[in-house]
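User: I'm putting together notes for a lab meeting next week and I want to include a structural view of one of the chains we've been expressing. I don't have a solved structure, so I'd like a prediction I can at least talk through. The sequence is below, exactly as it appears in our construct file.
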Amino acid sequence: MKITAQTAAVLSLIFGVACLAVGVNGLWQSGALADEAARADAHGFAWFWLFLGAVALATCVLSVLMARGKLGRLDS
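Assistant: Thanks for the context. Below is the predicted structure for the 76-residue chain, given as structure tokens.
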């Protein structure tokens, strides 16, 4: 199965925005936790989602650059 660069860009953009939303929501909601250990775990989980979103957005940028031919010639 082949995935075009445009499809990869759109899918990674959607995934990246969703991951960033989960991460930001996790950071905002973790302040309500009373237990320090649970709060630290929630922060770690939220930072993981933010990292995952950043990787997905980087993949989106690379896919757009590939689709425009800015990274060199693509072989079919």
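A couple of points you could mention at the meeting. The helical segments are 5-29, 36-68. The mean pLDDT is 90.

User: Perfect, that's what I needed.
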